[in-house]
Give the backbone structure.
Amino acid sequence: MSEFVKIATTAEIPMGEMKGFEVAEEKIVVAHTEKGYFALIDECTHDSAPISDGRIRNGELLCKRHGARFDPETGDVLAPPALVPLDTLELKVKGEDILILLDE
Ligand code: FES
């Protein structure tokens, strides 16, 4: 079964920033771009660095360790050295709360 779980408030993640969370033993990064809020697994597919240690540049997630770039909406790789996309999670904003869909 899956359910939406509150992970943060919108005030915690200003536009152009991202933040890492640990929920139900999953490391998750929530990014806030001009297109909205997005949730992804917080582990770079290249060498496991936390994506949340990097930053958002031109609406893309930039991994701090070796510079791979990912699309926050789809998780797709936009620049190497990563080759495998990041997994994404379903997210919705309800009032001031950011909720993500977690499997139980
Ligand atoms: S660990 Fe992210 S680019 Fe290498």
The chain has one domain: 2-103. The domain at 2-103 is CATH 2.102.10.10 (Rieske Iron-sulfur Protein). Residues 44, 46-47, 49, 63, 65-68, 81-82 surround FE2/S2 (inorganic) cluster (CB under 6 Å). DSSP finds no helices and eleven strands in the chain.
